[in-house]
Amino acid sequence: MAITARVKASDNLWFDVSADTEPELFKQVARVQEVFSVAKCGMCGCKDVKFVVRTAAKKSKWLEVVCQDIGCKAKLVYSTTEDNNFVYPKIRWDHLSDAQKEQRKDEQEYAEKHNGFLPNNGFFKFKSS
Ligand SMILES: [Zn+2]
Fold it and tell me: From the CA of 75, how far away is ligand 1's center (Å)?
């Protein structure tokens, strides 16, 4: 018998998940909470955040959550696992690619002092260096 649950990710985003076993339901709830529970911008606190997909030059797509505050526009970037089945928000220093580490090197010291976690819940403003 399927067990269903309604998971609130943010004020305007809900998910209905369903599974045959408790461990499977647990996994699904965890996925929703890890990937989609972005209720506000980690930089300015604005609750108006938007999920955005941009197609990059090659085969890949950029998945981002972008703050809609016009004075902020900070974003949280996501990564896709190699098998393309899962995505996760880049909230830790070791999630960043080498190019991202270079671009965001001013966040490294914070991460080292906070068990590897990036400042502002992973939100950052694009810096042209
Ligand atoms: Zn913001």
Answer: 8
How many angstroms does the Cα of residue 61 sit away from the middle of ligand 1? 22
Type of residue at 60: S
pLDDT in tens, 105-124: 999 999 999 999 999 999 99
Measure 42 CA to ligand 1 centroid, in angstroms. 7
**Portion of the chain with pLDDT greater than 70, in percent:** 95
Measured in angstroms, how far is the CA atom of residue 54 from the centroid of ligand 1? 19
Task: Determine how many CB atoms are found less than 10 A away from the CB of residue 83.
Answer: 6
3 state SS for the chain: CCEEEEEEEECCEEEEEEECCHHHHHHHHHHHHHHHCCCCCCCCCCCCEEEEEEECCCCCEEEEEEECCCCCCCEEEEEECCCCCCEEECCEHHHCCHHHHHHCHHHHHHHHHCCCECHHHHCECCCCC
Q: What's the distance, CA 92 to chain centroid?
A: 11
